[in-house]
Structures are given as structure tokens and as C-alpha cells.
Amino acid sequence: MPTVQTNDIETYYERSGVGPPVVFIHGAILDHNQWKPQVDSLSGEYTTITYDVRGHGRTGGSARETYSIDLFADDLDALITALNLDNPVLCGLSTGGCIAQVYAAHHSDRLAGLVLADTFSPELFNRREWLQRSVLLKATIPPTRLIGYQRVEKAMVWLQERVQGTDVSGDYENIERLRASGPKLTTDEFAKVIRAVAAFDEMELNFSSITVPTLVLYGEHEPAFIRRHAPKLEAEIPTASVRDVPGAGHASNLDNPEFFTMAVREFLAQHVQRDAPSSVDGIEDGD
User: 40, 257 in Cβ contact below 8 A?
Assistant: First the structure.
């Protein structure tokens, strides 16, 4: 099982293909398998790296009492360093997009590009968003201890769709299939991850320091409290452009994988040198 030491944990990763490196960062309470459609399509042209964020999948948990988006970004930095990745493109979705924002704000000089999908900035625009991102997120922890996070999330998706009136969850069966096939989070790890996401608003990010080409993708049916961050990211990241993913909800890479992958491929073709060095030097799977 390929792992590398990243700070105080062994991070599970998978590598496929040959060419300039693209690192995919999954959303909360999922794992690296979220990116299978993109890996299958892009690994003929690029080296794709997927991994399980601390607390998730085959990486699993750690003894730390609390997590943060900063910590997840530090783990990503250690992964990129351990794998000797030369100017990768980062592609993060939802919480993975938060991690990618933090990394890019501090290490733009180490990147060739950035893709932010279905994600949000630290800013809370109004009290309703504060309730959804802070209060309601943390409120999922007690019932999770009783009935499990799968049932709690399904109830949250049902409530959000009733409130917004659109299919914000997209093809939710895709998410359920992914969760059924991978290792389950423990309740304690779920709580640490959720608290980290809920505390993202406490961070201060200098978006003007993100100097690499940036593509921002949002599902057509994205929840409004997340969707409203698209104009902010486009306005404050100097090189950002925004595209809608037709017919997609919050997991746009799964809801419309053909369009999502096409948009990423076009972005890579425009901004990544095809004669760039291959992605991983001196690291063998399982080391």
C-alpha cells in the first residue's frame, strides 16, 4: 500500500500516468476514490496523484485532538515534498478546495495552476451562512454519535433541497456508493474534520498572493450559500476565471464528469507545459 510520511501520519496516495503532475484533493467525509472519473480520463496525458486527507480513508486518523484546514494544507505540503512533485496543479473540491486555497496562498511559487471546485472562502457573508457553515455543521456531531454520519448527511441533504428547491446534492447515489466501498470514518475523526471545516471562517487568506492560473468550477445547482463565493474568488484571485458545470450539484466532478473533466483538461492544456518534467522522481509506490 503506497504511503508517505507527512508530518505525524502516513498518508495513503495513488499515482497514475506519466506527464506533468496534477494533485486531486477530495471533499470532507470522502476519500481519493472521488476522483476516479478524472484519473481515468486524464492519466493518459498527466501524472495524477490522489490521496486520503488526514482522518479519511486509508490514511485514517491520528492522535491529535483537533484538526484545521491549515493542518491539512501542511500535510499536503509534506506530500508534495515527499513525492518530489515539480510545480503540480492542485484540484480541490469543497473542503479539498479550502485546503488548496490555503496551500496556494502560501506556496504559489511551487504550483503551476489551481482548480477550485464547489468550494468557499473563509468569509461568512451573512448570519444565514454563519448558521449553515458553523452552527449546523457542528450540530451534526451529537446525532452522528447515535446514528452514524451517513444518515445524518442524508437528512441534511434532504433539508437543503427543501430549502433551496433545487437538486443541490446532484446524483447523491454516487456519494453513497463511494462511501460504501471505502473505509469508514470513526465518530471521533468525523468530529475533528467537521470542526476543522466549521472553523475555516477564522482564517485570514491573502488571495492576491495566489498568482498561478486559477479555474473556479461550480455546479449549476450549487447551494446558494456556497455559490455566492464564486464572485469573491473571481474578483480577489488575480488570475481566476469561473465556469458553471451544467446539471451538477455540490459534487460536480461526479454529477457531470464529462464536462468537469473537459474543463480541467482545457485548463491544463492552456497553462501546463507538456514538456514539463515527469511528476515523481525517486519515489516508488510503497516506500
Answer: no
